[in-house]
Design goal:
The protein is an alpha/beta fold and 257 residues long. It has one domain: Metal-dependent hydrolases (TIM Barrel), CATH 3.20.20.140. The protein is 42% helix and 18% strand. It is built from 9 helices and 8 strands. It has an 8-stranded parallel β-sheet. Helix 7 links the parallel strand 7 and strand 8. Helix 6 packs parallel to helix 7.
Length: 257
């Protein structure tokens, strides 16, 4: 009954075998996949997949790489997309100071604008944060109590995880938790309250260790859940159930199981 809370099924990497990917996900026990748009055209593709497949839901947003493209028209498009019943969140939004494909000030403005839009629409946010921990936290603190969401593919330390939880956010764990050198990440997720943990693939990126360097896909979220269960000293099926329940609580438009 696992849920992959962050995939990119709309991307070109899945164009040749998307049906087979979904079949493998079902065989692995996944009941829901959230496919996450990062540009306006990809949000439209994500929506099309959500309309077509009962197990697929969508999130819509403009990634920090594309923040330079955020304008009134794109915000209006996101507002329109969000009215769809299977759009469960606004995202992937945030800051990426590693690549800096958009200027930092532009990213900050775009992130703030989309956070405000999520508050207006009463949707949770899916937050991308790479090498921008302080700036991300600062913007989330400004909206304390007004927004909730998830730090996707969490890459911070134990202190940051604790503050995110205190601000009302969930911590999502992806394939890197299985990597040999990811000790800081493993230390952080050991301390996160169980009711605030999610699992994801971020596919086609960040395949878990056993498939590292290959294309990731939703079925592989089971390996991440298994490693997370080991870290927390519980059976893997229990971790899958807990993280699935957490996902349904955060992404309320999915409804109960």
């Amino acid at each position: 009954m696992a849920i992959d809370t962050h995939a990119h099924l709309e991307m070109e990497a899945f164009d040749q075998d998307r049906e087979a990917v979904l079949e493998r996900a079902a065989a692995a026990g996944l009941t829901v996949i959230i496919t996450v748009g990062t540009t306006i055209p990809d949000c439209e593709k994500a929506l099309a997949l959500a309309r077509r497949y009962p197990q697929v839901y969508a999130s819509v947003g403009v990634h920090p790489h594309e923040a330079k493209d955020i304008d009134a028209a794109s915000c209006e498009a996101l507002r329109r997309f969000a009215a769809e019943p299977k759009v469960v969140a606004l995202g992937e939004i945030g800051l990426d100071f590693f690549y800096n494909h958009s200027a930092r000030e532009v990213q900050l403005g775009g992130f703030a604008a989309q956070l405000d839009l999520a508050e207006e629409l009463d949707l949770p946010v899916i937050v991308h944060d790479r090498d921008a921990h302080a700036e991300t936290l600062a913007l989330l603190r400004e909206r304390r109590g007004r927004l909730q969401g998830v730090l996707h593919c969490f890459s911070g330390d134990t202190a940051m995880a604790a503050e995110c939880v205190a601000l009302g956010y969930y911590i999502s764990v992806a394939g890197p938790v299985t990597y040999p050198k990811a000790d800081q990440l493993r230390s952080a997720v050991r301390e996160v309250p169980l009711e605030r943990l999610l699992v994801e693939t971020d596919c086609p990126y960040l395949a878990p260790q056993s498939r590292r360097g290959k294309r990731n896909e939703p079925a592989y979220v089971i390996e991440t859940a298994r490693r997370l269960a080991e870290l927390r000293g519980m059976p893997a099926p229990e971790m899958e159930q807990i993280t699935a329940e957490n996902a349904r609580r955060l992404f309320a438009k999915m409804g109960p199981r």
